[in-house]
Amino acid sequence: MSSGSNGARRMVSLLRPSIVDPGVCRSCQETLGRRSYASAAPAATETTSTSASTTPVVKPAYTINAGVVLSRPPQITRDLEPFEKSYYFYQKRLNERLALPFTKYFYFKRGTPADEDWKKKILERRTAARDIGKYNAYDSEAWNDELLLGAKESEPEHQVEMLLQDAESTANATSQDTSKKEEIPRPFPRVTEADKKNDQKSLDRLLSRTLYLLVQSKEGHWKFPSSPVESGETLRLAAERTLAQSAGVNMNTWMVGYHPVGWHAYNPPRAKSDKQTEVEVAGSKIFFLKSRIMAGQADLSVNTQNLKDFKWLSKEELSKYLNTQYYSNIKNMLADR
Amino acid sequence: MAAREPSRFLSRALPRASVPSIRPQGFLSRRNVSDEAPSRRLSDHLSELESASSLSTPVPDSAAQSFDPVARAKARKTQLPRGRYQFRSPKYDRGPLHPHQPPPASDPSSRLFVPGPFSAPRAEQTYDATVAADIMSLCYVHTPPGFTPPPKAPRLREWDDSSPYHKNRVLRGPRGGDVLRLLRKPIKFNNIPEIERITIHSYVNKAATENSSWLHVAGIAVQAISNVRVETFKSKTSVANWGIVPGRDSVAVKAELYGENMYHFLGKLVDVVLPRIKDWEGVKGTSGDSSGNITFGMEPENVALFPEIEVNYDMYPPKMIPGCHITLHTSARTDKDARLLLSAMGIPFYGKIVN
């Protein structure tokens, strides 16, 4: 295995550039070239014969662009479907029917304020559970465990409110100080100010969805931040530079990996030639890297990429702003939620 | 055979619905002459279907408000005998040939039915929406077109046939140890590491040296924090200075968490308990069984930080609250992948990282 001479290897490596396939990217070609000496040798002999006979065909090249899909992950849980709400609620009542009864005497000593409070509450709601409404699982009417039309009991907001009210009333009934009312802070609303005002530049909007940063060029079309990869630059470095040049440095971001998660090819109707290098350009290919924003906000005031506006949009809203072809190419790399 | 295949042009000329499906669909695709009769046309059957769901049609308010199932049941003059509407599952499964078969365990009338799930856990939603996709991008390894990975040596060593006794002998294990490690496959969309189950295990030596109340309290505490019934275990090993004899003393409790319970427990652990532990650096980087399962321990005072125990702290004898070992079983094949997953879910690691 290791008996091959060094000179032979060098000869193979000299011959290797001739097996360049235009369909394979540069880094892949290097990997392929590094592959195995055993398989490289016959390939090399093969191509020397062909390269002598054919002249190299200059295809119009694509410019390689690096794009950044900067996203803010969902901050809160999703809204449940009506079916899910009723299913979970029904399972809770079924559980109440099948579980052993609450052992009151273990948790409440007789004659204590907590015990009195418990007695009052159990008369009201008939069950130990605080979030399943008025329902007695050991009654002769326990079979009537389904909600009627328009009942609020299966709504998560209602259940949270019930739990909090119960905790407040327990605290009020058992505390020594009767003058002070216990107030438990309610959870923040799921719909924020930015949602109400439809402020699409705010990162506080649509908390249960993933938001993506979209920028608008001076010509007026919307896109993910992207720019051509410069020579000697990796895709990841180019993506980081693009982000800094377009949306500013006032963001704490994290690039997810070194590989693109999707790509889009832009083919203009006619291939143009580059003015400086005289090379014909067929179009541009954008390779998108994934990135997450942790803190900060986009700022286009110092951008060097000819951008005039930005928006934070969910997946459905993206389709309204993006070109159809562009959107169909990128939609599968976006999260569902 | 060729004559039976529908023509390409025919299928284009006909409207979509009338083109026969090429894929066989069992007995449904069988066509008889009688199907062509006007009463049995496919289109006639379709026209019988209602275009909209009956649930979407609005119910008149009067009907909704006057509906009172309890009053209706009470207004009935004679009640049905119970046996007519209350099904009771047979107590014993008497085999598949018995005429009285128990319903499946998912049926609420089954004796094996366990209700649930009751919620969509937040930790699970985070995993689905954010973590899984990020892990897939992070673990992607690009193989260029035409690349064939170099062949690997066989995992089990063969015997050189230097002796006639080597014939048909079982293969040898790898050099340097007799354990075959799990094979790590490239992470694709269908094998992204996820948390499979969580085990909470608590070894209470005082249950053997003093009395069984230690074990009862440990069991109740683990049950309270996990929402899962615990199992107790007898000691397998003898510990002389604690006087533990194998097979005699019940010394440990264990709860296995799956699904909803598991994600709720993980959420509580990551967001409530671990941040409140004083001077806790994280899970040791050397932890793990090198096949994707990570274990860490919790001291008794940290177990008492769980909200279920904290609200009800007076009910537990304070000295008897147990410490425990928590094992996070993931579907990752290596500890490195498991650590990637768990740190994304919010569990910190510290110190030397061993893979």
From TrEMBL, chain A:
The keyword Cell cycle appears for this protein: no
Localization per Swiss-Prot or TrEMBL: Mitochondrion
One function term, GO molecular function aspect: structural constituent of ribosome
All residue ranges annotated as the Large ribosomal subunit protein mL46 N-terminal domain in the record: 62-195
InterPro entries: NUDIX_hydrolase-like_dom_sf, Ribosomal_mL46, Ribosomal_mL46_N, Ribosomal_mL46_NUDIX
Pfam families the record matches: MRP-L46 (PF11788)
Biased composition (Polar residues): 167-177
SUPFAM superfamilies attached to this UniProt entry: Nudix
One GO location term (cellular component): mitochondrial inner membrane
Key words of the record: Mitochondrion, Ribonucleoprotein, Ribosomal protein, Transit peptide
Entry annotated with the keyword Cell membrane: no
Region (Disordered): 167-200
Family to which this protein belongs: Belongs to the mitochondrion-specific ribosomal protein mL46 family.
Protein name per UniProt: Large ribosomal subunit protein mL46
Species the sequence originates in: Penicillium arizonense
Lineage: Eukaryota, Fungi, Dikarya, Ascomycota, Pezizomycotina
Automatic annotation (TrEMBL), chain B:
InterPro entries: Ribosomal_uL5, Ribosomal_uL5_C, Ribosomal_uL5_dom_sf
Alphabetical list of SUPFAM superfamilies matching this protein: RL5-like
Presence of the UniProt keyword Ribonucleoprotein in the record: yes
Biased segments, Basic and acidic residues type: 32-48
GO MF, any single term: structural constituent of ribosome
Domain of life: Eukaryota
Ranges where the Large ribosomal subunit protein uL5 C-terminal domain occurs: 251-349
Keywords in alphabetical order: Ribonucleoprotein, Ribosomal protein
GO CC entries: ribonucleoprotein complex; ribosome
Region (Disordered): 1-111
Gene Ontology biological process terms, A to Z: translation
Xref: PANTHER family: 60S RIBOSOMAL PROTEIN L11-RELATED (PTHR11994)
UniProt record similarity statement: Belongs to the universal ribosomal protein uL5 family.
Protein name: Large ribosomal subunit protein uL5m
Organism phylogeny: Eukaryota, Fungi, Dikarya, Ascomycota, Pezizomycotina
